[in-house]
Amino acid sequence: MTRPTIDDIARRAGVSKSAVSFALNDRPGVSPATRERILRAAAEMNWRPHKAARALGGARADAVGLVVARPAQTIGAEPFFGLLLAGLQAGLSARSVALHLMIVEDTAAEIEVYRRWTSERHVDGFVVVDLHYRDRRVPVLEELGVPAVVLGGPSGHGTLPGVWADDREAMLSLVDYLAALGHRRIAHVAGDEAFHHTRRRMRALKDGARRLHLADAFSVPTDFSDAQGASATRALLAGPRRPTAVIFDSDVMAVAGLAVAAEMGVAVPAGLSVVSFEDSLLTRIVHPAVTALGRDTFGLGGQVAATLLAAIDEPGSVRDVRTATPRLTVRESTRAPYTARKA
Amino acid sequence: MTRPTIDDIARRAGVSKSAVSFALNDRPGVSPATRERILRAAAEMNWRPHKAARALGGARADAVGLVVARPAQTIGAEPFFGLLLAGLQAGLSARSVALHLMIVEDTAAEIEVYRRWTSERHVDGFVVVDLHYRDRRVPVLEELGVPAVVLGGPSGHGTLPGVWADDREAMLSLVDYLAALGHRRIAHVAGDEAFHHTRRRMRALKDGARRLHLADAFSVPTDFSDAQGASATRALLAGPRRPTAVIFDSDVMAVAGLAVAAEMGVAVPAGLSVVSFEDSLLTRIVHPAVTALGRDTFGLGGQVAATLLAAIDEPGSVRDVRTATPRLTVRESTRAPYTARKA
DNA sequence: AGAGATTACTAAACCGCTCTAGTAAATGGG
DNA sequence: CCCATTTACTAGAGCGGTTTAGTAATCTCT
Q: In chain A, which ranges are E strands?
């Protein structure tokens, strides 16, 4: 009752195990009749290749790694992560490549896993998320010489291929939109400054505001948590120069901010416009629904998968991929500010 | 510049490769001095075992599989899944077992992956989620004889060990709570009837209502989506006998329901009490914050991991694990109904 | 018809590690 | 001091495939 090996098939079909190997791998060197006989024998015995045996011979692991250093809470909370995962999967499983997922404490542990999985030949490549400013993981992966794709860019990921959306362009268009509505005091509840994209968005906000001669436009960094998003909003709404519009870097923080506005009796959108830099179920599900910059996260995962598979097939051949700039979906949370409407 | 093998270490340490294998695996048969020398050589050459080579000899794959048949949207949307994943990881990585994740179209594909990964020796066991009524996966896994743990119970998972919380008890306590507040007309926006736990909850609601002689208590099945949660709520609020309290089977649907209430001008909790059967960031983040049954999903993942590892170590030794019954966290969305307060 | 090419197949090495069987030297007991 | 046991090690088979080198039979061409 033990699992069949190619030797068993060879015996049943009356040929050598090399012939079986050829037949099963569509290689020349077996006559159609014999091939047919071998395939039937294999099917009858319900044979499946032993992954390890193939891998030992130097074949692919047919798996890629995704190592994430984040607190568990964040992973559950952000729709982004789940959608990315699903998109990655879709892209990979078409080529029957599996995904090895590992959640670790910190970047040091993450790097250790990269080293281990690489030398154990456990995976064929890696997907790197949450690109940091001066990211330590990039040089390590370059040194290991393992195929890897970074979700983020357009810079900061060294020689590794990056897949990125133009956050700068998106932020500028957002500022344009709010300014066109009449907003002059715009606040930005940003994410973690350690992240590359957070910095880029903050810079873009400044630039956009200067271009349009806006009175106030400033960013408040947070750790991306709902708690900090809420307290940042509280501080903004209680402050002396209350903004008329707030841009939140994530859907979670936008919804937290919305709750704070409700709690403080500030009507949205009448008294405050709210925009999320990330679109998801969250922004659609709440009332009022939140105007948000949306990108196709599922599709993004698919593009990352495709890029990584290409990098595995032909190392060095792959260049950066710029995905579509996030587009604004206007919902109920934005409107011209009270002052502008009065004028 | 190729990766070192035990042969290389053997040469450098001046011993045979068997000696190296013994030393590296803490087996007797090498003197302390030699062992020390071998370990140093291995460390100097930065040697790591080749997983496939070990696996070929019959060793563990040191990985478990999680195959999920759900639409991508759901995976992104529900905090539950991410938290479970993180908890699983935490439990597994302590024993350096990796998680193979696969997202598939349907149950048929899921079963096919079980078969493939089992015969390829790709994983040592499986975690099974979303237990269905008369689940087809259970007999297949039993037949394959592969260790597996089912998230769900206390019945319907055959001889496989199950990890479950007492949904029935939880629903009964929920009904008790609402009845104590004075609610007599309670609606239940349920999940998919194909799921085992949905049926159990529906039955528990009926039983609880009968016990307390409640006028109306009925369940409306949905597909767990925010869209169906919203439309079910709309129907309930527009219907002739509007309930004074609604129990939602998931956090996503509860929040969608909340938005519908706001949109229809029904104040929560003044005109309607809302309870979620699932607690998460979502229920806390919205305004009003939603009263919810909470369980430690992260911890649950850890328990599933522990149970599966035990099942792998000693097949047949593991019995069901009943986890803590979800406990109610009262927030702002529940209150005595208007009629009761008048009296 | 005979040399060379092609076809259909087999034998065996190889991937990196584990583990059993075997051997030589050191140790111990009476 | 000699035989039995233990210790410290080595040789080599085996895990399940892939792949190279080799062989016998058939085909092709002049």
A: 63-69, 98-104, 125-128, 148-151, 162-165, 185-189, 216-220, 245-248, 273-276, 291-294, 321-323, 327-329
- Is A43 at the interface with chain B, CB within 8 A? no
**C-alpha to C-alpha distance for B170 and B275, rounded to whole angstroms:** 12
Closest CA to B231 of B212, B198, B253, B252: B253
What stretch of H or E contains B84?
helix B79-93
Distance B32 CA to C30 C1' (A): 31
CA distance A52 to A3: 14
Q: Percent of chain A having pLDDT more than 70? A: 98
- Please, which pLDDT band fits residue B1 given cuts at 50, 70 and 90? low
pLDDT band at B153 (very low <50, low <70, confident <90, very high): confident
Helix (H) or strand (E) holding A281: helix A281-285
Positions of chain C reached by protein Cβ under 7 A: 7-12, 14-21
Positive or negative: CA dihedral A179, A183, A185, A188: negative
Per-residue pLDDT reduced to its tens digit, B20-56 = 999 999 998 899 999 999 999 999 999 999 988 998 8
- pLDDT at position A341 is 55
Question: What are the helix and strand counts (H, E) for chain A?
Answer: 15, 12
What predicted TM-score, i.e. pTM, was given to this entire model? 0.90
Searching chain B, which residue's CA lies closest to the CA of residue A49? B120
- For A225-245, what is each residue's pLDDT tens digit? 999 999 999 999 999 989 999
Identify which of A133, A170, A169 has the alpha carbon closest to the alpha carbon of residue A152.
A133
Q: How many other C-beta atoms lie within 10 A of the C-beta of residue B266?
A: 15
Residue labelled with tokens 């992104």: B76
User: With contact defined as beta carbons under 8 Å apart, do B165 and B326 qualify?
Assistant: yes
d(C-alpha A37, C-alpha B39), whole Å = 50
CB of B258 closer than 8 Å to CB of A287: yes
Chain B residues with beta carbon closer than 8 angstroms to that of A104 = 93
